[in-house]
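Appendix B. Worked example

We walk through a single record from start to finish. Start with the input: the chain for Phosphoglycerate mutase-like protein, Meira miltonrushii, length 503.
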Amino acid sequence: MATNLFPSYEEFRGESHEGSVDPFLAVTDTFFSADSQRAYGPAPYETRYQALGDLEGTFDLVKHWGVLAPYYSSPIFRELQSYRSIPNKCTIKQVNLLHRHGSRMPKHDQHESAPMFEIWFKNATSDDPKINGGQKATFSGPLTFLTKWTYALGADNLVPAGFQQLYDSGIYMHYRYGPLFKNTQNSTAKPIIRTTSQQRMVDSAHFWALGFLGTNASALADIEIQIEKGGFNTTLAAQENCPGTKTSLAGSMMKADWIKKYLAKAVERLQHHVHGAKLTPEVVFDMQSLCPYETYSLGLSEFCNLFTREEWIGFEYSHDLVFQGDFGFMSKTGRAQGIGWAQELVARMKGGKISTPLTSQNTTWDGNDTTFPLNQTFYADFTHGRQVVSILTALNYNVFGSQLDPLRPDENRNFIVSHIAPSAARIVFEVLECDESKEANSGDSKRRYLRTFLNDALLPMTHEQGCVGHDGLRDGLCPLDKFIEHFEQSISKEGKQAPFKLP
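Next comes the structure step. The output line below is what the pipeline stores for this chain.
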């Protein structure tokens, strides 16, 4: 019997589970009057929240949910965006899509913010004499809703809005790059779409494929599910098998200092409405995190209106610190976590096997032409937000190299994680072939370039990525041969100096 190269791996999907309450906005959404100035828009859940004290309602707090923000086109590098159209005499030869999963429920993690508030709440409202002396906390004012509140969230799964984000992305990519996929179909095997075995990752790939290919998706492409847990290597979740990531958590430590500062006033303000229990910055941060999680899962959250504009900006910055410090340019292991997928990208662009020292690749997958083909003109891989950041770091997109201060945010920084890795974030690497001849019969003068789109925004390319001979800071183009040469030289050098140690 032939081996099935594309099994479902249900046993490796983790401890995901659905929430205990279904959304019922027809009954529960009573926040706003009929003449509210802010309509739902395209989102199926409530988005008309107003930050505390924002009487004009001009601040869109939803876009400041950091890595939990819903997908929206990034506003970064506005000066380049006039170059989004394909240059004259150029054609697109290959596209590599790297896609984050959609909006999700909280992770099944003892340190996840939303479940941590559930633990505090249960202890605070317990009448067990061994806990708080049996004194049950009570709530008043804006926290009165906690009198009847229960924790109803699931864990790890995509929410329906996450399905929508991936489906919409698939449709968008179909309109943008459809012919490239049809070219891939002409090869001897079906094109491969790669993802990992967590349920939200599998669902993300399936819903994207449904939008991109339609209901006949399974007949047109194979979804390759790489096991994420249990010691198996995969470049789509390299941190799972990189022991150094467990001890290199500079961002998480910076976040701990930052929330003490930006939530100091919120702790004092909300403590007046909590009787019989003590609030801390950590508990209040967990409360704030429930705003996006409950909105995605239940359709709305009464936690959202408890915080000021400044406190939502502070919430966003806490995510910036974690992702830059743990996975980005401020992390000792950020580059190592992303380097494996970067090597795979270069191999695809060259059309040859990985020639640099192996890192986080699964050699069983990458050593097989069926599971790691090199003849596709359109590739799609699905990954996590932290991997999006670490891959940008590995490929030295140093325009995101902002060094963040744990107590003083720089309003002009380029690293804002809601612009880089929101829910359903995507990076598109386009390989262009351009005819640079000045005359019609001047011989072969075609040259290939790389350009990159992050959440619809064209990114600048720099000489530190090997982009010499062309001003990639101006129009986002980088000579592909120079980019590959620079990347492979740096990997070979690093491999000799400090080999990557993976299980």
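Two observations about the output. Residues 327 and 386 are 6 Å apart (CA to CA). The longest strand covers residues 90-100.
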